[in-house]
Amino acid sequence: YGYNVADAGTALRGMVFTAGGKHESDRDFKFQIATGRFTMAPVVNGLEQTRAYRDRVAANRKKSFLVTAYAFRPKIGYEIGNVVRDRPERLLDNVNFQDYISRFLVNFDMSVELKKFLTVSASDVYYYHWKVDRRPQRNYVEAKLDFNAGYLFPRFGKRALSYGITGKFQRGEQSPTFTPVNVFSIGVTFVH
Q1: For residues 166 and 157, what is the distance between their CA atoms, to the nearest angstrom?
Q2: Which residue(s) pair with 40 in the sheet?
Q3: How far apart are CA 56 and CA 145, in angstroms?
Q4: pTM
């Protein structure tokens, strides 16, 4: 849901309110939580331009841009929920967990696309847990580098299968268990 507060000459074009639900689990499905997330994001002039908009501007100027699309999106939010399935050993007294989930979050997403075939993106989420006594602040960062090989080497035609190579780095403490994460991964993506 968006609320438009734009006026001619203002930097703030509007506010986007988002409500949603999510289910998180550890890899063996022994610890599961259900949460509702409510976020608010300002839409600021100049912080986001799509590929279609940049293509139109380039066509009018009769030149191409190095940066073909970009987006910088700050958000604030709140998550509320509960543990729906638990493992028996966690029932011991542990100050890192709580059964009732109530956490404030600040999120910053950024994405920059270069020449339509290379995309650099990052997302940083900062959590604050109200009921956790020890280290209530948690942080999680994910950075990605996507190489769109289907754009450079169109073997399957313009409207067929597209493929790419992705490198991803994750660091911090990711929900639901907030155990430390420090991972680098490489993958192949296919889009039809």
Answers
A1: 21
A2: 17, 76
A3: 25
A4: 0.70
Strand partners, 31: none
Does residue 148 sit in helix, strand or coil?
coil
187 token code pair: 């993958």
* Residue 186, C-beta contacts closer than 8 angstroms, at least 6 positions apart: 165, 166, 167, 168
Cα–Cα distances in Å, from 146 out to 43, 119, 121, 134, 140? 25, 5, 8, 37, 20
Tell me the pLDDT tens digit for each residue of 47-88.
888 888 888 888 888 777 788 888 899 999 998 888 777 655
- Token digits of residue 152: 């450079």
| Strand, helix or coil for residue 54 | helix
Tokens of 90: 């966690």
Do the beta carbons of residue 138 and residue 107 sit within 8 Å? no
Measured between alpha carbons, how far is 97 from 79 in angstroms, rounded to an integer?
Answer: 15
